[in-house]
Amino acid sequence: MGKGAKNVVSRFGSESQVTAENVEAFVAAARKALGDEAADVKISFGVMSFPTGHDLEVFLKGVGVDVAPAEVEQ
């Protein structure tokens, strides 16, 4: 998050259960620490899990991401 020397980098471990509310709070705190309430945010991940396929569909629709069936493991 941020640019150049004014940035924040973090990683959540593989056993962390991170909710949307946690991410929103983390982003808000990091932006405040940077002094830039509109700092760009880049989020990447390797593995995510959802209780149901419907929950995954809702998430993907909300973030505007298309996923091929081969990219989802049940």
Keyphrases for this structure?
74 residues; 5% strand; two-stranded antiparallel ribbon; single chain; mainly alpha; 35% helix
Label the structural class.
mainly alpha
Q: Cα distance, first to last residue?
A: 32 Å
Poorly predicted ranges (pLDDT <50, ≥5 residues)? none
What's the total number of strands? 2
What's the helix-strand series?
A: EEHH
How are the strands of the biggest sheet laid out side by side?
1-2
Q: What shape does the CA trace take?
A: elongated
Q: Helical percent range?
A: 25-40%
Q: What is the gyration radius calculated from CA atoms?
A: 15 Å
Strand content: 5-15%
How would you describe what is shown here?
- This protein has one domain (about 1-65).
- The protein is elongated.
- By secondary structure, the protein is mainly alpha-helical.
- Helix content is about 35%, strand content about 5%.
- It has helices at about 20-35, 55-65; strands spanning about 1-5, 5.
- The protein is built from two helices and two strands, in the order ββαα.
